Amino acid sequence: SAARELEILRRKVPGAPERLSAQVVAFVQALRAEDLFKLPGIAETIDWTTALTALNALALDPQTVNDTRGVLLYNQDDIARIRGSGSSRPGR
């Protein structure tokens, strides 16, 4: 569940801004409803949040999603399909 994933994320990436963590979880949850070759798991959520935090991101925006989606998605076709059209859901 999203609540459980957020709880795990808070423990694994304690320095991440709360708003960013909530947006990442919402985005990843929405991605899991997409028809992707490899859906991101909790490990990818943690990796992406860690990277975003290292980049001093405070919140998701379309440009940040586009610039960093390779950390979250490993398949090149999936990366090409997903664009950061919103902070809480994937876009095309």
Description:
There is one protein chain. With 92 residues, the chain is mostly helical. It is 60% helix and 0% strand. The radius of gyration is 12 Å and the shape is globular. The model is unreliable at 85-89 (pLDDT under 50).
Summarize the structure.
This protein has helices spanning 2-12, 18-31, 42-54, 62-72, 76-81. It has 92 residues and is mostly helical.
Core attributes:
92 residues; 5 helices; single chain; mainly alpha
- The assigned structural class equals mainly alpha
DSSP summary: helix tally: 5
Strand content: under 5%
**Could you name the ranges where pLDDT drops below 50 across 5 or more consecutive residues?**
85-89
Q: What is the distance, rounded to the nearest whole angstrom, between the alpha carbons of the first and last residues?
A: 24 Å
The major beta sheet can be summarized as: none
Topology:
Elements: H1 2-12, H2 18-31, H3 42-54, H4 62-72, H5 76-81
Helix pairs in contact: 1-2, 1-3, 3-4
